[in-house]
Fold each of these.
Amino acid sequence: GAVVSQHPSWVICKSGTSVKIECRSLDFQATTMFWYRQFPKQSLMLMATSNEGSKATYEQGVEKDKFLINHASLTLSTLTVTSAHPEDSSFYICSAMSPRQGFNYGYTFGSGTRLTVV
Amino acid sequence: AQSVSQHNHHVILSEAASLELGCNYSYGGTVNLFWYVQYPGQHLQLLLKYFSGDPLVKGIKGFEAEFIKSKFSFNLRKPSVQWSDTAEYFCAGRDTGRRALTFGSGTRLQVQP
């Protein structure tokens, strides 16, 4: 079945540094990927929609200069948290639209990245 | 605005008890609805989804959900839970004009042996 690999699983970084998170579709081509942020005991909040070969579409309130998304190939999307601050500490999850029959496409999720900024 | 709400935040059941987790949505038009499960330390896994047709949807692991349009609901059910069902459950929705899913706040299910 469709598999999405997300790396790293966890990362600790110092304030002011940048962190890159990768999301790869292993056995299918994903023209569209999504990045979510999940706070403890809360739901997944959509940050942006990543489209292969074009600019990402950010949700209202998400700083595009802080959360850089690049979707340069059909199997890889990256999220870079720039100049990280402690309030950026969170669980980040990527998701890819996996191909199915016609309109009934599905979604495959990565295992998430726990970011801690100290 | 599109929204999905789950009113049960934490549910504790004994093994063999029946389960029903509530999910309500606010979409006005055609909607696709999903239930996902997240076991500790693992990624979200699809339990079942509704696109159209029979409003009673059968999923994996013995779960089912019923789409009731008049009540804007898509509740998840299982007749007899097991300890291994302990996990976080998320309801999610999508209308046909948007590709991304909107998630509910999640329900933590704890099944006691």
Note: Chain B touches chain A through 19 residues (CB under 8 Å).
Amino acid sequence: EDQVTQSPEALRLQEGESSSLNCSYTVSGLRGLFWYRQDPGKGPEFLFTLYSAGEEKEKERLKATLTKKESFLHITAPKPEDSATYLCAAGGATNKLIFGTGTLLAVQP
Amino acid sequence: DAGVTQSPTHLIKTRGQHVTLRCSPISGHKSVSWYQQVLGQGPQFIFQYYEKEERGRGNFPDRFSARQFPNYSSELNVNALLLGDSALYLCASSLGPGTDTQYFGPGTRLTVL
């Protein structure tokens, strides 16, 4: 069965303290791995799409990487405004995205 | 540029009632997908439509139905509401079907009492 697992469930960082979020996936015929940011009570905001193992994408303090079994979202020198839930989703052979439960990130000043 | 829009923002219904949620995709996008997000969980896929045809259906009961109109906007209908249907309902649009990058709207918060 297709599945996406994110870890940790929650992460508390000090401002400037870099870290990584993990997304493990088991999806038949992966067509894309997606990262979103979600603020409380709002819709997910698109961050990155990765299509093949070895691919990397960067945006400001965020960098996403992809291997054949997992993806990482690296956060460099985070700021309090980076606090949010980060969602990972995998698209496979079916026409749907399978989401993980997210990592709740809190960055303290 | 306008993003995905959804209406209403919030909705309160009682058990057994029916609800219709609406979504307008990003201009130029022809595919709309619907997701249900329960508090503390990731979004769960309900439907995908492309060019007015259903292209995917998630594991939801027949009480859930949807349709897409010629202007690519979409409606999600839920009949015989249950307490467990309380959730944030998200609409996402993409250029095409399948797993093109999907852009989400702000959601409709449904509360069933």
Note: DSSP finds no helices and eleven strands in chain B.
